[in-house]
Amino acid sequence: MKTVLGYLRPHAGRVAAGAAIKFTAAVLELILPLLLAEIIDELVPAGDTAAIWRTGGWMSLLALGAVGCNITANRMAAWVSMEMTRVLRQDLYRRIQGLSCTQADRFSPSSLVSRLTNDTYNVHQMFDKVQRGGIRAPMLVLGGLMLTFLLEPSLALVQLAVSLLTFLTITLVTRRGIPHYTRAQAAVDTVVRILRENAAGCGW
């Protein structure tokens, strides 16, 4: 993982900018419930139609701003993932080209091809999803908890308990699932290797 993260360092500025844009989008999204609560609790009972339309207009602008920020951040995340994977694949290809015949035979050509295709694709998908949802989700959870504590502290305690239970469940499932995922990936690699070897044999 340290080696892979090294390919992300040249794009640290863009990643930070994307995280800041994601944070802005999360703030805009979290303001919407506050404005909606104001409409329901204050403006509707007062019958202030003009204020309702005005607040609704602000909500529309905030929603459009959040959509624009999310689209921009997602495009930046896709570009960063694409570029780092491209450089990673190039370096891996050069490394494979420098292997001796004995080393190449030990790994097998089909396994080396799998490293260049399946593995680099999985790395691309991981970093892309982390930048998209992995940054946004914690911001929304923490921001939602803060707003709930401001609006309804008793309900916020329930939300906090559910969030902690969800986090604990995810942690336990992840710890138990990683070994199974590792074995599954090894099995997939074996299947891909055999299929490539059979395809190469049929080609001859």
Give a brief outline of the structure.
With 204 residues, this protein is mainly α. It is 93% helix and 0% strand.
Structure description:
- This protein has about 200 residues and is mostly helical.
- The chain is about 95% helix and about 0% strand.
- The protein has helices at about 1-5, 10-45, 50-95, 100-105, 110-150, 155-204.
- The two termini are about 40 Å apart.
- About 10% of the residues are buried.
- The model has no long low-confidence stretch (mean pLDDT about 85).
Sketch the major β-sheet. Answer: none
Which bin fits the share of residues in helices?
over 70%
Q: Count the helices. How many?
A: 6
What oligomeric state best describes the polypeptide chains here?
A: single chain
Structural class: mainly alpha
Average of pLDDT: 85
Radius of gyration: 24 Å
Low-pLDDT stretches: none
Beta fraction of the residues? under 5%
Would you report the number of β strands? 0
End-to-end separation: 38 Å
Secondary-structure element pattern, one letter each: HHHHHH
**What characteristic shape results from the CA principal axes?**
elongated
